[in-house]
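Q: Could you fold this chain for me?
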Amino acid sequence: MNVHDYLALFFGTQEPLNPALVAGAIVLSFLLAILIATVYQVTFRGFTYSRSYIHTMVLGSMVTCMLIMAVGNNIARGMGILGTLAIIRFRTPVRDPRDAMFLFACLGVGIACGAGTPMVAVIGTGLICAAALLLHWIPFASRRDYEGLLRFIMPVDDAETAQTAQEILKRYCSSFYLLGMRDAEQGDAMEFSYQVRLLDPAYQQDLVAAFKKAGGFSDPVLLLQRTTVEL
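A: Sure. Below is the predicted structure, expressed as structure tokens.
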């Protein structure tokens, strides 16, 4: 290889893009990102829904498409853009790994469209959306929604009240485990925390009502576990 060939390898030999090709690739990335974002909205189960995050998915796909077309097969441009992006700091945390995957899918669509492989982008988007909807509808990797954390306060060294608590837990829970105890009411009582699994989801109110009616207990609280909340 001569010097000209080495320079062509480094700086690229991409032919000029026409406006119709550029616009078509960006519009395609926009439409496919909209589809992925719609599936994300349908399958979203968290509590902190963010409209700006949806917009980030769509705009991120278009920006990525533009960058890929700008780079082409030019290594010098790629290094320059990589250095520029390294300066930018994205300080918005993505707490759910599933959200990160949807964002990454949109960026992948932008890469495929910008690289001139629309078939990869279309088929990939269809399969990813189908997989996301399938995982949303089937009970794969799901846990029962009626696991929770039970807290209540009872007097110190009261064997009868402690026995009553055990009887109530056995009546409404398939399993329960003592997580911790701490002083309450200036040392005159103890607060107990139990990890419980109810026999039936309908027992949520019954369990709390049983502690209130039994006497000797105060402030019984049942916090149900969700997939997005750590107890």
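A (continued): The chain has two domains: 3-137, 147-224.
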